[in-house]
């Protein structure tokens, strides 16, 4: 109740600082982790290895996405139960989430270990990339439970009075990943398998940090108490489904684009897209951090009917994300080639750098619209409108990108593949604007 009163009464600038800063910091570190992997693989192994890892990326996105469905829904359902004084119900929901997530992670781990080559082929790996892609998937599969439970236990900190827990776990993960990447890829020369192993072990290190308070019996939510409640778990999963669609859409987008770039420019085209996506994902994660940070402010004030505070919070988040996107758009236009050169050796990979630099200017248009879409999706999730949130996630990640890929490459060639991404964002933004206009009415 104390937290709810603070969210309803404290001046909004203070709330922004308190809730947005840790969320964005954790997202920044997540983004750095992906960029560090790319730098090590690109410089020590080469462009083809980067392309192979990007081909395998949808498998990683499915791990994250399935975990987020359970985690987001569970945090919402358990949080409401705790707020209503129903501690045992909260424990039951949390216990159910632990069991369901364990089953999901074991299934995904088995798929990665036993079917890595068929998965790589399904994701579009060419014969030249197949071995590296399947090796990455197989090695990462060993660590699926560590990845999934690091996310769940980290998010749980927000409900047990430890809002910095996820950030602490992420700091541990990125630090371990940098050290292990250097050792596995740079020193030992283990290639993509070494990069996947470094990522998995880094998540395991992060898990050891975030799990500690959840092992204590006195913690309101812990790994010991509770009963399995199928109905509560189904509701929680549906409530978190918009997050799952976001990650599933990201995985499908990478899959569609990889196939399109492979068809238009071969392995070099996939490598160029991989470099741009590393940088773009870094800023996109910052935008998602903003969305996550304002979520409790929006949801509490929605319940209290304080629409003026909701509009001010939403407006501030939209302005911030637009400015952030504008900065990256300018960077891609002015210094894109220099930025891309950080990932590859200009002497041996000049063709890929030139291709990526040309594509960056088109791809950069995405950032003038995707911040708006990300905040709007989070806005509807916070207000309990999962359907609208799913529409936005599917629009920007599946529907409009697929439509763009069907239309533009045949007309503009490789540039058409690049253009399908900003087309997807701007088309989704138009849909968002129409939905928001209808949602602005006050609840009855």
List keywords for this structure.
444 residues, mainly alpha, 17 helices, disordered N terminus
List the helices and strands and how they pair.
Elements: H1 2-9, H2 12-44, H3 47-83, H4 87-114, H5 116-122, H6 127-141, H7 144-156, H8 165-187, H9 191-210, H10 230-239, H11 241-303, H12 307-340, H13 350-363, H14 370-382, H15 386-407, H16 409-412, H17 414-439
Helix pairs in contact: 2-3, 2-8, 2-9, 2-11, 3-4, 3-6, 3-7, 3-10, 3-11, 4-6, 4-7, 4-10, 5-6, 6-9, 7-8, 7-9, 8-9, 11-12, 11-13, 11-14, 11-15, 12-13, 12-14, 13-17, 14-15, 14-17, 15-17
Overview of this protein structure:
Keywords: Cell membrane, Membrane, Transmembrane, Transmembrane helix, Transport. It is found in: Cell membrane. It is a multi-pass membrane protein. This is MATE family efflux transporter. The chain has 17 helices and no strands. 83% of the residues lie in helices and 0% in strands. It is globular, with a radius of gyration of 21 Å. It has helices spanning 2-9, 12-44, 47-83, 87-114, 116-122, 127-141, 144-156, 165-187, 191-210, 230-239, 241-303, 307-340, 350-363, 370-382, 386-407, 409-412, 414-439. The chain is mostly helical.
